[in-house]
What we know:
The protein has 8 helices and 11 strands. The protein is of the alpha+beta class. Strand 10 and strand 11 form a beta hairpin. Helix 4 runs antiparallel to helix 5. It is elongated and about 60 Å long.
Amino acid sequence: MVGLTGLFELVPVEALVNDTMGLLLSFPRFDPEVASERLRELEALEVTAIFNGGPLRLGDNHVLGRGHAGVVVKALCDVGHVALKIRRVDTARESMGDEAGFLEVANGVNVGPRLYRWSRNFLVMELVEGPMIVDWLNGLDPGDGESVRHLLLCLLLAARRLDEAGIDHGELSKAFKHVIVSGGLPRVIDFESASVSRRCANVTSLTQFLFLNSVLSGRLGRFMGLPDRGALLDALGVYKRSLSSLAFDSVLRICGLL
């Protein structure tokens, strides 16, 4: 679910076991028995083909992404082009059910790729296309400050909705891997590390990533004034303790977004 580049080779599901893409069904080591079982699971999910293509290379295959729990590929099913997450056989997770549940919570507040359906070993999700946030920023001109401020406001509002919904993404301190800009709007992806049991830190983690990370804040400084570090840390401390709307508005004002 990242920026799509290069050619994509379509591999029908029924041909996967005899194709190099069959490895992905039992990644990181090909197991024909596991692959055959998972083919039946894919057919039940109405996935008809997988595309060999994307920015990340795994052996002879190219994919959209790889995490601790799964590999993400572009696929074709009855709803069209989708992102398919395949559970790794070496993960400690017994099922994709927890991540599916986290996505459903996030979708309930209009965050994350839409979850279409899932099974023990697969998630079938909306295919979110576009550059990662850092690549998007690198492609802008200094006069695009208003577009940058709008995107940052939308992104922090999405983080706030997650906080209010009680789900912590868990990886927004490294948002360069987890935010895609699609149609000029930010999309938060990959809820693999999410939790509904720990205290939410979406706004605080994301704000620190955007404005207190020296590399990214240097890029943002091309488009807008940067907040005072001490004032922002104080405001984030208040927000972290209260998670209140007033404290969130204070964070936005200090960041120049309200």
